[in-house]
Amino acid sequence: MKFDNAIRKGAKSVYENLPWFVRDKIRKTFQNRFVSPLYEQLPLSVPHSLHIDPANLCNFRCNFCPTGDFELLKTVNRPKGVMQFELFRKIIDELAEMCTKSGEKVNELHLYKDGEPLIHKELGKMIAYVKK
Ligand code: SF4
Fold first, then answer.
1. Do residues 37 and 52 both lie within one domain?
2. CA-to-CA distance for 65 and 70, rounded, in angstroms?
3. Does 2 lie in the same domain as 18?
4. H or E, element range at 50
5. Atom of ligand 1 nearest to the CA of 66
6. Nearest-CA neighbor of 115 among 76, 77, 62, 71?
7. What domain range is 16 assigned to?
8. Same domain? 7 vs 57
9. What's the confidence (pLDDT) of residue 101?
10. Ligand 1 centroid, distance to 43 Cα (angstroms)
Protein backbone atom coordinates (compact mmCIF):
# COMPACT_ATOMS: atom_id res chain seq x y z
CA MET A 1 0.00 0.00 0.00
CA LYS A 2 2.84 2.39 0.88
CA PHE A 3 4.47 1.48 -2.44
CA ASP A 4 1.25 2.38 -4.32
CA ASN A 5 1.13 5.71 -2.55
CA ALA A 6 4.79 6.41 -3.41
CA ILE A 7 4.14 5.63 -7.08
CA ARG A 8 1.02 7.74 -7.09
CA LYS A 9 2.83 10.65 -5.44
CA GLY A 10 5.74 10.38 -7.90
CA ALA A 11 3.40 10.22 -10.90
CA LYS A 12 1.46 13.18 -9.54
CA SER A 13 4.66 15.18 -9.20
CA VAL A 14 5.71 14.40 -12.79
CA TYR A 15 2.21 15.19 -14.05
CA GLU A 16 2.06 18.51 -12.21
CA ASN A 17 5.34 19.64 -13.73
CA LEU A 18 4.11 19.13 -17.29
CA PRO A 19 2.99 22.20 -19.24
CA TRP A 20 -0.74 22.89 -18.83
CA PHE A 21 -1.58 21.98 -22.44
CA VAL A 22 0.07 18.55 -22.05
CA ARG A 23 -1.83 17.96 -18.78
CA ASP A 24 -5.02 19.04 -20.53
CA LYS A 25 -4.37 16.58 -23.37
CA ILE A 26 -3.65 13.76 -20.89
CA ARG A 27 -6.81 14.58 -18.95
CA LYS A 28 -8.92 14.52 -22.09
CA THR A 29 -7.24 11.43 -23.55
CA PHE A 30 -7.39 9.27 -20.46
CA GLN A 31 -10.50 10.81 -18.94
CA ASN A 32 -8.80 11.22 -15.58
CA ARG A 33 -8.03 7.49 -15.19
CA PHE A 34 -4.44 8.24 -14.12
CA VAL A 35 -5.17 11.36 -12.15
CA SER A 36 -6.42 10.87 -8.64
CA PRO A 37 -9.87 12.34 -8.20
CA LEU A 38 -10.17 15.53 -6.19
CA TYR A 39 -11.92 13.78 -3.29
CA GLU A 40 -8.77 11.67 -2.79
CA GLN A 41 -6.65 14.82 -2.60
CA LEU A 42 -8.78 16.52 0.05
CA PRO A 43 -8.16 18.35 2.28
CA LEU A 44 -6.00 20.56 0.08
CA SER A 45 -3.04 22.48 1.49
CA VAL A 46 -3.20 25.06 -1.29
CA PRO A 47 -5.95 25.98 -3.76
CA HIS A 48 -6.13 23.61 -6.72
CA SER A 49 -6.73 26.49 -9.11
CA LEU A 50 -7.34 30.16 -8.66
CA HIS A 51 -8.97 32.99 -10.59
CA ILE A 52 -7.78 36.51 -9.90
CA ASP A 53 -9.52 39.29 -11.77
CA PRO A 54 -7.07 42.12 -12.57
CA ALA A 55 -9.97 44.21 -13.89
CA ASN A 56 -13.70 43.63 -13.74
CA LEU A 57 -14.46 46.06 -16.54
CA CYS A 58 -14.15 45.94 -20.27
CA ASN A 59 -13.97 48.35 -23.17
CA PHE A 60 -16.19 46.15 -25.34
CA ARG A 61 -19.94 45.67 -25.19
CA CYS A 62 -20.61 42.10 -26.26
CA ASN A 63 -24.36 41.71 -26.04
CA PHE A 64 -24.26 38.37 -24.22
CA CYS A 65 -21.90 39.55 -21.49
CA PRO A 66 -22.88 41.33 -18.25
CA THR A 67 -19.42 42.93 -17.99
CA GLY A 68 -20.12 45.00 -21.07
CA ASP A 69 -23.57 46.02 -19.85
CA PHE A 70 -22.93 49.02 -17.57
CA GLU A 71 -26.65 49.63 -16.98
CA LEU A 72 -27.11 46.06 -15.74
CA LEU A 73 -24.05 46.35 -13.48
CA LYS A 74 -25.52 49.50 -11.91
CA THR A 75 -28.71 47.60 -11.05
CA VAL A 76 -26.76 44.88 -9.18
CA ASN A 77 -24.38 47.40 -7.54
CA ARG A 78 -21.29 45.79 -8.97
CA PRO A 79 -18.54 48.40 -8.83
CA LYS A 80 -16.13 48.66 -11.74
CA GLY A 81 -12.41 48.88 -11.23
CA VAL A 82 -8.93 47.45 -11.50
CA MET A 83 -7.05 45.59 -8.80
CA GLN A 84 -4.32 47.55 -7.06
CA PHE A 85 -0.92 45.98 -7.63
CA GLU A 86 -0.23 45.91 -3.87
CA LEU A 87 -3.31 43.74 -3.28
CA PHE A 88 -2.23 41.45 -6.10
CA ARG A 89 1.26 41.21 -4.60
CA LYS A 90 -0.22 40.36 -1.17
CA ILE A 91 -2.33 37.53 -2.65
CA ILE A 92 0.64 36.07 -4.54
CA ASP A 93 2.95 36.38 -1.52
CA GLU A 94 0.43 34.57 0.70
CA LEU A 95 -0.01 31.84 -1.91
CA ALA A 96 3.77 31.44 -2.20
CA GLU A 97 4.00 31.11 1.58
CA MET A 98 1.28 28.43 1.56
CA CYS A 99 3.12 26.55 -1.20
CA THR A 100 6.45 26.77 0.63
CA LYS A 101 4.96 25.52 3.90
CA SER A 102 3.08 22.61 2.32
CA GLY A 103 5.48 21.64 -0.47
CA GLU A 104 2.46 21.69 -2.81
CA LYS A 105 1.77 24.04 -5.66
CA VAL A 106 -1.21 25.74 -7.26
CA ASN A 107 -2.01 23.88 -10.49
CA GLU A 108 -3.59 26.76 -12.34
CA LEU A 109 -3.69 30.49 -11.89
CA HIS A 110 -6.06 32.38 -14.15
CA LEU A 111 -5.69 36.13 -14.42
CA TYR A 112 -9.25 36.50 -15.58
CA LYS A 113 -12.77 36.25 -14.28
CA ASP A 114 -15.32 38.95 -15.11
CA GLY A 115 -13.40 41.60 -17.00
CA GLU A 116 -10.86 42.13 -19.72
CA PRO A 117 -7.45 41.63 -18.05
CA LEU A 118 -5.58 43.48 -20.82
CA ILE A 119 -7.28 46.68 -19.69
CA HIS A 120 -5.06 46.65 -16.58
CA LYS A 121 -1.97 48.76 -17.25
CA GLU A 122 0.12 46.62 -14.87
CA LEU A 123 -0.89 43.19 -16.21
CA GLY A 124 2.65 42.57 -17.51
CA LYS A 125 4.06 43.47 -14.10
CA MET A 126 1.56 41.08 -12.47
CA ILE A 127 2.56 38.20 -14.75
CA ALA A 128 6.25 38.91 -14.15
CA TYR A 129 5.64 38.93 -10.38
CA VAL A 130 3.86 35.56 -10.50
CA LYS A 131 6.63 34.03 -12.60
CA LYS A 132 9.25 35.30 -10.16
S1 SF4 B 1 -15.43 40.76 -21.05
FE2 SF4 B 1 -15.22 39.68 -22.99
S3 SF4 B 1 -17.29 38.99 -23.51
FE4 SF4 B 1 -17.48 40.58 -21.92
S5 SF4 B 1 -17.78 42.51 -23.03
FE6 SF4 B 1 -15.57 42.28 -22.69
S7 SF4 B 1 -14.79 41.26 -24.52
FE8 SF4 B 1 -17.02 40.98 -24.48
1. no
2. 10
3. yes
4. strand 49-51
5. 4
6. 62
7. 1-41
8. no
9. 93
10. 35
